[in-house]
Amino acid sequence: MGKNIKWGILSTATIAVNAIIPAILSAKNSEAAAIASSNPKVDEWARKFNIKQVYRSYDELLHDEEIEAVYIPFPNHLHKEWVIKAAIKGKHVLVEKPAALTSEDVMEMVQICKEHKVLFMEAFMYQFQPQHLFVKEIIDSGEIGEVRHLSSTFTFPLNIHQHTHEFRLNAKHGGGSIWDVGCYCIHAAKTLIKEELKSVYVSGRFHPDHHVDMTATGILTFSRDVTASFHCSFEESFRNTYEIHGTKGTIFLPNAFCSDRVDGGLGEVTVMNGGGEIRTELFKANQYVLQMEHFAECILAGKEVWYSGTETFHNTRVIEACYQSLTEEKIVHL
Q1: Membrane-crossing residues (predicted)?
Q2: How far apart are alpha carbons 164 and 88 in whole angstroms?
Q3: What is the number of structural domains in the chain?
Q4: Domain end: 96, 123, 150, which one?
Q5: Under a CB-based contact definition with an 8 Å cutoff, are residues 234 and 157 in contact?
Q6: What pLDDT shows up at residue 266?
Q7: 253-265: string of b/e by CB count within 10 Å (b at 16+)?
Q8: Does 197 share its domain with 118?
Q9: Tens digits of per-residue pLDDT, 62-102?
Q10: Going by C-beta distance under 8 Å and a sequence separation of 6 or more, which residues neighbour residue 227?
Q11: Across the chain, what does the average pLDDT equal?
C-alpha cells in the first residue's frame, strides 16, 4: 500500500464537509489527518469523518509537523493571508477558487510557495471530470472543425434574505456572481480556446444595497475572431452548461461544472458533427476525488500540478478585466 498524504482542513466550511473531506476519505493516496475551527461543531464533524486531530485555531494546525498539505476554503478575501502562512510552514496548498482577488496577490502567493518549495493549486475541481478531456480530444481530432465560439452559463438562486451575511454578498470580501460562478465559465473558455485573449466586455446588474454583481453577461474576444460568451447569476434557476461551436459541428455539456450533482458524478457530452451524426457519451467519476488524488500524487512524485499558478495568475487577470468592464461600462483590452 502506497503512502498517503496527510491533509489538514482549515475550517468547517460547507464545501469542506460536504465535498472535500469525503473526497479525501475516498482518495487512494490521501488521509484527513486534522481539522481546525473555532466552530463548536468541529468535534462533531471530526467524529463523523474519523479525523483524529482537532485544533481550535488555524495557526495550531499549521504548526503540526505531520500535516503535509492543507485545504483552504475561506471567504475569498482571506485566501492570500492563509496561503502565505501555510507555505511558510512548509505545507502544500490547495486553495478554493478564486485564489485571490487580484492578479498581483496571486503572483505573490505563487512566488512564496515556490520559495518554500511547496505546491500551490487553485481548486477548479470541475476540470478533473473526464468529460472535459474527451471534449479536448474531440476538438483536437477536428471532428467539429475549427472552434469559432464557446458559450457558457452558471446560475443559481441565492436567497438574499436567508444569507444576509453571506460573503458572496460582500464586495470587500470578493462577493459577486463573476467571482463565485462566472469564474468557471471564464476558466473553461481560456482552457478550451487556444487563441490569445484580446478583450472583454461585460454588462450586468449590481444589487442596490450589497453592491455586488447579481447577474453578469460577458463577451471574450480572442485572436482570429474566435469569441466566447458567459452568463452568470445569483437570480436564476440552477444551470451549469457550456457549448462549443465549430465550423463542422457542436459539443454540448449540460453538467459542465457540477457533475457531482447528477447520479453521484455523471458527466455528459453530446457531439453533433457536420455529417448530421449526434451521439452522447457519459463519464461517471467524482471530480473532487480526482482533484485530491492528482494533488497528492504530485506531492508524492515531486512533480508540478496540472493547473499551475501561472495559469491562475492569467485567469485572475481576465476576471479583473471583466470587473473593470462591468464597472466602467466599456471594452477592456488585455
Answers
A1: 7-25
A2: 35
A3: 2
A4: 123
A5: yes
A6: 96
A7: bbbbbbbbeeeeb
A8: no
A9: 999 999 999 999 999 999 999 999 999 999 999 999 999 99
A10: 148, 149, 150, 219, 220, 221
A11: 96
